[in-house]
Write a structure and sequence with these properties.
The protein is an alpha+beta fold. It contains 5 helices and 5 strands. The chain has one domain (2-99). It has helices at residues 2-16, 34-44, 54-60, 65-74, 90-99, and strands spanning 26-27, 30-31, 51-52, 80-82, 85-89. The strands form 2 sheets. Strands 3-5-4 form a 3-stranded antiparallel β-sheet. It starts with a helix and ends in a 17-residue tail after the last helix. 12% of the residues are buried.
Amino acid sequence: MMIFREICEKFARQLRENRSPTTLKQKGNRTMNKEELRKQIEQSLKRCPDILTPIKVYRWTPFGKNKVYELLRTGELRSFRYQGGYVVSKDDLIDYLVEHAEDEPGRKIRRRYNND
């Protein structure tokens, strides 16, 4: 989890500094292929339980609660219904993170400057 969190924090820091962010799949001077990215995400989620509720999904990933529920409702993140709630397997979560690692962020950040 630390490696994935560090990547997300680096991405956010670059946005705050008003630089264009590098892609999440870069490692050093070369880009990672899907297998390497999968291994890195599996390593960061190795203490994550094998079965997750939506609350645990948003605690282990950079997504918010509403985004997790939106992904579950639309079927983008594979899940199962169990006793009236959603259940997500860790493998399905890793598959989703690998497939969408290079997606653009959904929220646009606007900066307001005072010209006083």
